[in-house]
Design goal:
The complex is a heterodimer of chains A (323) and B (250).
Chain A: H1 2-22, H2 26-50, H3 58-74, H4 80-102, H5 107-127, H6 129-132, E1 145-146, E2 149-150, H7 154-176, H8 179-189, H9 191-196, H10 201-227, H11 237-250, H12 255-271, H13 279-293, H14 297-310
Antiparallel strand pairs in A: 1-2
Helix pairs in contact in A: 1-7, 2-7, 2-10, 2-11, 2-12, 3-4, 3-5, 3-10, 4-10, 7-10, 11-12, 11-13, 11-14
Chain B: E1 2-11, E2 14-24, E3 29-33, H1 40-47, E4 55-60, E5 63-64, H2 70-75, E6 78-81, H3 93-100, H4 109-113, H5 117-136, H6 152-165, E7 170-174, H7 182-197, E8 201-205, H8 209-215, E9 218-223, E10 226-231, H9 233-238, H10 240-247
Parallel strand pairs in B: 3-8, 3-9, 6-7, 7-8
Antiparallel strand pairs in B: 1-2, 1-4, 4-5, 9-10
Classes of the chains: A mainly alpha (323), B alpha/beta (250).
């Protein structure tokens, strides 16, 4: 308990002072995106890491959040904060309704259904040109502002995005450690036993799917108001795969791991520009290597690796059930 | 307590259970025995809402519960354990039992995420009660072990401790002694007797005849989906039909 709190304060302090070291150049802009992807990865981790339910369509909720916020503000001049609330609530309701039929499915079928959902939503962004601007995108989305401060610089956006990211991390850590988190992990390990213990698995899965959608929509709205321009390519299939890779690199169920995964996958391409065209191959290879050799992800895997290297202890066998 | 009324279950063309009826009385230990394929586990799966019967009804504490899903039955204080233990492998022993207290707590998603004061108190209470159930099952020193790392016998005890945490009126155990050595089986017998003494009705499917004859008040014998016999352990031991079913005809 105390340890968790200390970890959280250390993390928050680190995020708070990081701009001093990052500077005001291009890199701070990259860290704004690390923040947005951290929120998205944590959202997926609640669903995949805790409840064991895969989603290959997270980009749909991310995109819906961005487009609802974007269209309301850019086209209809709604207050940005209000549009953010509308985006988050609407996506929550959509995810809740979609969740009932989708989460009846398990394993590969669930993966295919969520994949389909992601692709359909992507097509909608492209085809409803009158509303979304289609493939050429939607511009003129206003920045958020709060009591005279307009979040129009990278540094201001950094603090704006990370305020939300850190809050989402805290709430997620709390949720994971709670009765609800235990029920979700129980569903992951044995759904039938969880139900025998009185866990309404069906409803709880839909609820966490919806919450995952809500958090992703929040990230979408933040994205829209930070970048002020959105186009469908930011919310396509490869974004969903990228998010999955982040969660798996960091470790299923490890909330801080999701930050690590998001940071690695956002920062690396910046340093290795040549990867750009091959990103999906790099993600694929990373996924394969991590799941084969470090199924617990980096946060759990690296300490184990070090221990086995320096203390000559064998690498413990993983108890992961692969579903 | 639990009344099973002409339950029939057909899988494809196979009749797993055929018009089976019997009653489990409150406060007793009822053993359900029979050769492999008799339909014992199918019966448990129907009673606990994992399957629904093709026809027939299940009454529990005077209420028709046919087709109730397992989570609803937990709310009515009915619980079961599984033949090939179903633990939450990546959770600790203590956490497994804490899941057993799910129906005894109510903090929702919002209260949990924001750590509202009521939730914090409830969480402390869950932890304390779960610890006392571990004491009950003699697992207290393993509280922080990951459940997947438990030896089989301890896993069985954990499954029972977790089931006890929901404070059941009836506990259905599917082959609790399977895979246990004789020392572990006798510990198990003591534990089941202790459960009965605390006023809980027990139904068990079991192959270990010594255990069944030692602890059961009544026995129901199933064979090929039919009820073959019903009675006290002594009556069952002397029943011609039962002896034939188990040993075959000359």
């Amino acid at each position: 308990m105390k340890q968790e709190l200390l970890k959280f304060f250390l993390f928050t302090a680190l995020i708070g002072i990081a701009p001093v070291f990052i500077g005001k150049g291009y890199l701070i802009n990259v860290f704004v995106f690390v923040g947005i992807y951290t929120i998205l990865a944590v959202a997926l981790n609640l669903l995949l890491g805790l409840a064991g339910q895969i989603s290959l369509g997270q980009a749909a909720f991310f995109g819906l959040g961005a487009y609802i916020s974007g269209v309301l503000t850019a086209t209809h001049a709604v207050n940005p904060w209000l549009s953010m609330v509308i985006a988050v609530v609407t996506v929550g309701i959509i995810a809740f309704i979609l969740g009932f039929p989708i989460l009846k499915l398990k394993g590969h079928y669930l993966a295919m259904a969520t994949l389909g959902m992601g692709i359909i939503v992507y097509i909608i962004f492209n085809e409803t040109v009158d509303i979304t601007g289609g493939p050429s995108g939607l511009s003129g989305i206003p920045h958020l502002s709060l009591g005279g401060i307009i979040f129009n610089s990278d540094l201001k956006n950094y603090y704006l995005v990370w305020f939300f990211a850190v809050t989402i991390i805290l709430l997620s850590v709390n949720l994971a450690a709670s009765r609800i988190g235990r029920a979700l992990r129980a569903i992951h390990d044995s759904e039938v036993a969880a139900r025998i213990m009185g866990v309404n698995a069906r409803l709880l899965k839909v609820q966490i799917f919806s919450i995952s959608g809500v958090i992703s929509a929040l990230a979408g709205s933040l994205y829209a108001h930070t970048v002020t321009f959105i186009s469908p390519t930011s919310f396509g299939f490869n974004v969903s795969i990228e998010l999955l890779t982040m969660v798996i690199i960091g470790g299923l169920g490890s909330i801080y791991g999701s930050f690590l995964g998001a940071a690695i996958l956002t920062l690396l391409p910046e340093f290795f520009r040549t990867f750009q065209d091959y990103d999906i191959i790099v993600y694929g290879l990373t996924l394969i290597v991590i799941t084969m050799f470090m199924p617990g992800g980096l946060v759990r895997g690296v300490p184990l690796l070090f221990r086995s290297l320096f203390k000559k202890e064998p690498m413990p066998q993983s108890n992961e059930k692969r579903g | 307590m639990l009344r099973i009324e002409s339950i029939t279950k057909i899988f494809g063309g196979l009749k797993a259970l055929d018009e089976v009826s019997f009653t489990i009385s409150a406060g007793e230990i009822t053993g359900i025995i029979g050769p492999n394929g008799a339909g014992k586990t199918t019966l448990f799966n129907i009673v606990t809402g994992i399957y629904s019967p093709t026809s027939g009804k299940v009454f529990y504490e005077g209420k028709d519960i046919t087709g109730f899903p397992p989570e609803k039955l937990a709310g009515l204080s009915m619980v079961r354990t599984f033949q090939g233990i179903e633990l939450f492998g990546r959770m600790t022993v203590l956490e497994n039992v804490m899941v057993g207290l799910h129906t005894k707590s109510r903090s929702g998603i919002i209260a949990s995420a924001f750590k509202l004061p009521g939730h914090v108190r409830e969480e402390r209470r869950i932890r304390e009660r779960a610890s006392s159930w571990l004491e009950f099952a003699g697992l207290a020193d393993l509280a922080n072990t990951e459940a997947a790392n438990l030896p089989f016998g301890k896993g069985r005890l954990l499954e029972i401790a977790r089931a006890m945490a929901i404070e059941p009126h009836i506990i259905l155990m599917d082959e609790p002694a399977a895979g246990l050595n004789s020392r572990e089986t006798s510990d198990l017998a003591d534990l089941i007797k202790k459960i009965k003494e605390s006023g809980i009705t027990v139904a068990l499917v079991e192959h270990d005849m010594d255990l069944v004859m030692e602890i059961c008040d009544r026995i129901v014998v199933l064979n090929l989906g039919h009820k073959l016999a019903e009675g006290s352990p002594r009556e069952i031991q002397e029943d011609e039909k039962v002896i034939t079913a188990y040993l075959g005809e000359d």
